[in-house]
Amino acid sequence: MLLLLLRRLGQSILVLLAVSFVSFLVFRHIGDPTVSLLGEDASLADRQAVIAELGFDQPVPVQYMRYLGNVLHGEFGISYRLKRPVVEVIAERLPATLELALAAALLAVAGGVALGVYTAIRRDSLVSRVLMTVSLIGVSLPTFLIGIGLIYLFSVELRWLPSFGRGDTVALGGWPTGLLTASGWASLVLPVCTLALFKLTLIMRLVRTEMLEALRTDYVRFARARGLPERRIHCRHALRNTLIPVVTITGLQIGSLVAFAIVTETVFQWPGVGLLFISSIQAVDVPVIAAYLLLIAALYVLINFAVDGVYLLVDPRLRRT
Amino acid sequence: MATTFLSRRPAAFRALTFVSVLAATLLGTSAAEAETLRWARSTDASTLDPHALNNGPNHNLLHQVYEPLIIRTADGKLLPTLATSWALTSDPTVWEFKLRKGVKFHDGSLFTADDVLFSLQRARAPTSDMRSLLVSISDVTKVDPFTVRIKTSGPNPLLPDNLINIQILNAAWAKTHGVDQPQNASAKEETYATRNVNGTGPYTLVSREQDSRTVLKLFPGYWGRGQFPLEIDELVYLPIKSPATRVAALLSGEVDFVQDLPIQDIARLRADPKLRVNQAAENRTIFLGLNVGAAPLTYSDVKDKNPLADRRVRQAFQLAIDRNAIQNAVMRGLSVPTNIIAPPFVHGYDKAFGAVGKSDAVQAKKLLAEAGYPNGFGITLHCTNDRYLNDEAICQAVSGFLGRIGVKTTVVARPLAIQTAAINNQDTDFYLYGWGVPTYDSAYIFDYLVHTRGKNARGATNATRYSNTEVDRQIVSLASEGDTKKRDATIKSIWTTVQKELIYLPLHDQIQTYAMVRKFDIPVNPSNTPYFKLFKLASGAAATSQ
Questions:
Q1: pLDDT (tens digit, 9 = 90+) per residue, B306-321?
Q2: Distance between CA B506 and CA B322 in Å, rounded?
Q3: Window B:238-267, CB contacts with A under 8 Å
Q4: Which of A159, A321, B141, B355 is most buried, judged by most C-beta within 10 A?
Q5: Contacts A–B by Cβ distance under 8 A
Q6: Gap between the Cα atoms of A220 and A214, Å rounded
Q7: What are the chain B neighbours of A97 within 8 Å (beta carbons)?
Q8: A138 CB near a chain B CB, below 8 Å?
Q9: CB under 8 Å to B53, separation ≥6 — which residues?
Q10: Alpha carbons A185 and B282: distance in angstroms, whole number
Q11: How far is CA B446 from the centre of its chain?
Q12: Contacts 24+ apart (CB under 8 A), B227-231
């Protein structure tokens, strides 16, 4: 088992190396960083001086090896745009993204499971049919359109909720949280709904299908025959057996919630790492882009690693190989 | 800021204003209630170091906190700020500036000539992004604590115009915090001036979260009290990247003033009785650049020679493109078609050059045939898609117009960072670009766009491969020509050549739009830098509350 874990670890490191190299190649094609360093009105000599200073005139492998060396020493460099250490900038923004992603994950799982169970049990009711139709919208509409639609309805027309920002934050030991203020909660509603909608509908449809399957099984029929109350049959017997695929999917989706937060954060001016990433791309702020890509890759690797670990615990057959 | 997300109801707010005005009158005080302006635009300032980056969003925010010697107001005039007066001395290479007395920095220290000497030296440091505006300066000396002299390498009649974005820092403060130079591009550490300020400006920094919210408060010790309206007590700067969200925030009453508006929303904002929309020409001309060099083109299907090197082909392009149609169909009226890369308020602008002729596809086709391309040819037009108003749509329209005369134009739209790199490396044959003139003088345009690339430290943005030794000589002479008449004649002569050669095809000057709640009336500043200390509340709002 230790060997298996070690092999997984080795694979994870390879994945991170590959991501860092691919992202490094991409930088050659996203434009000239001197535009954000010097502005549009800089002279040619100034541009060349900065390019030489930053080592952009050297061969790509040389640049990559130097970057890798710095990263292994924990040095991610300084942001070209913000003139501040990259690690500090990302650490400042990460809490906002994590709060958004976790709130969206909670809503997606809780809402998805509840609605999935409901639409499975009352599969022919009007409410279920409406929910199923609406869920199609959630699956098919692009995130930014949903976000803008929600803003126009709840901010411009009804004026119930703010259209942008994170509201007031309170620092909890270096972690600025929006969960302790009224404006923070109000600001969270629309972005969370926007980000969660797709996952929620996905989980809902998954749970519904699994649940319908489970309701047809023999043990549910026997339970009914024994005269157990319906609520108990649904929650104790049917739902439990549907949750295994849901748990797997959810685990994998948490990583994508952080990654997909880019669009939601841009629409709502949510000051997280996604918004930082978009601004950095426009400014060709290579150190920030590289660090962000590595962070997301590391997150995915970590989640996959954890999921693999859980499989090992759950399935005794895997342990023997 | 403790304001809630809910908008203040206008009716309730007016009642409140009424009550407070009434109370103020009854109590015999002249103090108005605290006025907050929530201000949104697309991009946040990247750093608070005023010499680190020469770009619009940075200057825009920092002009509220720091001050230069002179500013330029919305009407294009120079306004004495930290300098009270300036004049050339008997030596035409030396300018003398009289400085304002009794000016305090935000930390309480007094402003003197030493701060000017220090700041100009800092702005000229190798790591400063402002130094290209100050290359003509050879020496700055102190005459007395409130008089400085600036010596230039040759006569420079435009020196005051070059100082409008050079902010003055406190010398002692900068030295204490080790920021006597702007940060190095390859530095490993953040410097103190990146997130801390100490200016003489009307507003002090209260708090700042990058890309989220910056709060500024009126500085109680500001020298301009009594001289400027200073009616806005608190400024809350809220960058909002997404254009739709920015407009929504204004419509929902979450912000009071918005810059960088998307063209398609302006009609809707105009129709809203609670809002005010102000417009004026921006200091930026959009144009097409053409590779007129001798070598064959890279991005064309003509491989053996350069069709654009033939003036008849360039003239055919110019005749084919209907700039009035672009104004109506693409820009929805928000552009001023022009035939010269200089807005009317720039020194050297000539009405005769700016006039847009009629487009004539038949004549254009004839010229193409004469040049040897009766069936046209294929070419790639490189275009930005994130920089100018409707930039990509403009290129699509140009492609359509050229298609009418048989020139098959492929539009390649891409971000500014890539477009600028291509222009700087001359890796394009036909491109859309825009240019603003911070000095309000034609020489700036010639230096960057007309002079041979890379010679005499000029021509950085000239990707046309145009090189004319005589014009180069004339351009260089402008920098040190003290005789205004002679200088104006040279400017006119250079423009005459540029206009005749058709190395650029100017399209239009952009029109800039500001939208705000009715209570405020902020005029559009051609450099897109509103100075909030100058604004009075709209008279209409005052009338309702009295």
A1: 999 999 999 999 999 9
A2: 11
A3: 238-242, 244-245, 248-249, 251-254
A4: A159
A5: 173
A6: 7
A7: none
A8: no
A9: A36, A37, A38, A39, B46, B47, B129
A10: 40
A11: 17
A12: B228/B202, B228/B533, B228/B534, B229/B533, B229/B534, B229/B535, B229/B536, B230/B202, B230/B533, B231/B32, B231/B35, B231/B535, B231/B536, B231/B537
Given phi > 0 = left and psi -120 to 50 = alpha, else beta, which region is B225?
beta
User: In this structure, what is the dihedral angle of CA atoms A60, A64, A70, A72, given to the nearest 10 degrees?
Assistant: -170
State the pairing for strand pair B213-218/B234-237.
antiparallel
Crossing angle, helix B243-251 and helix A143-150, to 10 degrees? 10
Task: Give pTM, 2 decimals.
Answer: 0.86
Distance CA B452, CA B469 (A): 8
Which residues 433-452 on chain B approach chain A with CB closer than 8 angstroms? 438, 448
A120-153 pLDDT, tens per residue?
988 888 999 999 888 888 788 888 899 999 999 9
In 3D space, the residue among B104, B81, B272, B240 whose CA is nearest the CA of residue B160 turns out to be B81
Q: How many CB atoms lie within 10 A of CB B454?
A: 16
- DSSP β-bridge partners for residue B516: B257, B276
Whole-angstrom Cα Rg for chain B: 25
pLDDT of residue B412: 96
d(CA B179, CA B175): 6
A residues 78-117 near B, CB within 8 Å?
78, 80-85, 88-89, 92
Q: Facing residues of B414 across strands?
A: B384
In this predicted structure, the answer to whether residue B252 has a pLDDT above a threshold of 50 is yes
Task: Report whether B99 contacts B91 (CB < 8 A).
Answer: no
- Contact list in B for residue A29 (CB cut-off 8 A) is 418
Please give the Cα distance from B95 to B90 (Å, whole number).
9
Considering only the beta carbons, identify the residue of A148, A164, A278 that sits closest to B249. A164
